[in-house]
């Protein structure tokens, strides 16, 4: 009859561990000492933190000059805005350009001891990514954390990230504003030239034929044409800008193009109106002289309306290009850390010692079970052979 497997109860386990407490304690102590010695070779890492708050974007110039004409909405769509600010911060800070500037600014290839590597910049970027963290908080603020073996350098790197974030955002914003300002300036200059040319033509016409007083309904018709044409010019400016910055398949570009086509159709129908019952105006009922005069006055009215729209738009674009407001405000500036962030040597030694105790206890427990059931294990071994 084969021997029966004998189970080991908890009392026997504790007795066995008590008998072997000296080797268990010695092994655990030696492991803790080795862990303590090992932690001495781990360099201290110091963390410096910057707590940032996004600034609210304002368009003061448009609010003062638009007078409800929709310039603020146009500025928002053309000059930017509406994107997730925290995503913008993360993309700017985590870009290749930013990481390269940080590495070059603080000579991190030497600090990280990778200058002799095959690709020192790539290695330095990998270490920098491990030692930096950018976090968007639910409360709206943005946290920049930097770890380094040198506490002074950790603080300077965190400050550099904040300054670089503001500087890089200012460069991008002013570039966008400069492009739009160029469009507005070109349109402004061309409108001034058109007004001057039309005034000269009207002056020559008046000297030759005298001044004709047109009816009130004609002036109302001019106002309508001026308003619609101003909308056309506004749409053309926006379409010109979108055409240089977006692809032809972009939804905003296609929608703007459809708006321009609709306005052109409306203007064409007004200019070619031949209905004699139309209470606004029918050009066929005017004499040739009156028609010529009406055309000249219409051009001046339209061009003046366009100029009234462009001037505040141009001024705002110049203000946007000139101003350099920081993208974020610093709630808590980075400081030189006084205490290391890690490693926690005490915790490492305790964990190593506790692990050694658990492994040693497990070893003696298994050994007790094998000794107690030696005949059962021998029988099992003979059967397997």
Task: Describe this entry's structure for a reader.
- The two termini are 18 Å apart.
- The chain is 68% helix and 7% strand.
- The chain folds into three domains: 10-41 and 363-377, no CATH class; 46-176 and 327-332, EIF_2_alpha (Alpha-Beta Plaits), CATH 3.30.70.1130; 184-322, no CATH class.
- It contains 14 helices and four strands.
- The protein has helices at residues 10-19, 21-39, 60-65, 71-78, 85-93, 96-106, 108-111, 120-130, 151-209, 216-245, 251-271, 288-322, 345-372, 374-384; strands at 46-54, 132-136, 142-148, 328-332.
- The chain has a four-stranded antiparallel sheet with strand order 2-3-1-4.
- With 385 residues, the protein is α+β, with helices and mostly antiparallel strands.
- Helix 10 packs across helix 12 (288-322).
List keywords for this structure.
385 residues, alpha+beta, Alpha-Beta Plaits, 14 helices, elongated
Q: How do the strands and helices of this protein lay out in sequence?
A:
Blueprint: H1 10-19, H2 21-39, E1 46-54, H3 60-65, H4 71-78, H5 85-93, H6 96-106, H7 108-111, H8 120-130, E2 132-136, E3 142-148, H9 151-209, H10 216-245, H11 251-271, H12 288-322, E4 328-332, H13 345-372, H14 374-384
Antiparallel strand pairs: 1-3, 1-4, 2-3
Helix pairs in contact: 2-13, 9-12, 10-11, 10-12
């Amino acid at each position: 009859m084969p021997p029966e497997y004998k189970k080991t109860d908890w009392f026997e386990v504790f007795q066995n561990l008590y008998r072997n407490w000296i080797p268990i304690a010695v092994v655990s102590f030696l492991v803790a000492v080795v862990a303590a010695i090992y932690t001495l070779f781990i360099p201290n890492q110091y963390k410096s933190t910057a707590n940032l708050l996004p600034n609210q974007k304002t368009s003061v110039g448009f609010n003062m000059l638009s007078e409800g004409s929709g310039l603020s909405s146009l500025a928002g769509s053309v000059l930017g805005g509406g994107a997730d600010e925290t995503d913008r911060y993360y993309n700017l800070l985590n870009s290749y350009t930013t990481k390269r500037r940080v590495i070059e600014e603080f000579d991190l290839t030497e600090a990280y001891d990778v200058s002799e590597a095959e690709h020192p910049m790539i290695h330095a970027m990998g270490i920098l990514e491990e030692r930096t963290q950018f976090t968007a908080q639910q409360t709206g603020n943005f946290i920049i954390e930097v770890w380094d073996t040198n506490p002074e350098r950790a603080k300077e790197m965190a400050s550099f990230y904040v300054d670089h974030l503001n500087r890089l955002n200012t460069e991008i914003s002013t570039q966008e504003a400069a492009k739009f300002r160029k469009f507005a300036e070109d349109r402004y200059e061309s409108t001034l030239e058109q007004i001057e040319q039309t005034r000269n033509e009207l002056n020559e016409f008046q000297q030759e034929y005298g001044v004709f007083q047109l009816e009130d309904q004609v002036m109302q018709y001019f106002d309508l044409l001026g308003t619609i044409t101003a909308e056309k010019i506004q749409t053309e400016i926006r379409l010109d800008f979108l055409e240089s910055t977006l692809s032809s398949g972009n939804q905003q570009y296609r929608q703007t193009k459809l708006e321009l086509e609709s306005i052109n159709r409306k203007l064409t129908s007004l200019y070619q109106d031949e209905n004699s019952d139309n209470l606004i105006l029918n050009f066929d009922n005017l004499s040739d002289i009156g028609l010529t005069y009406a055309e000249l006055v219409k051009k001046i009215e339209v061009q003046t309306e366009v100029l009234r729209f462009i001037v505040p738009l141009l001024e705002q674009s110049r203000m946007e290009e000139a101003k350099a407001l920081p993208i974020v405000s610093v709630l808590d500036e980075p400081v030189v850390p006084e205490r290391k962030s890690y490693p926690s040597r005490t915790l490492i030694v305790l964990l190593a010692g506790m692990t050694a105790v658990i492994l040693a206890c497990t070893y003696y427990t298994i050994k007790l079970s094998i000794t107690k059931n030696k005949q059962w294990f021998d029988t099992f071994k003979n059967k397997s052979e």
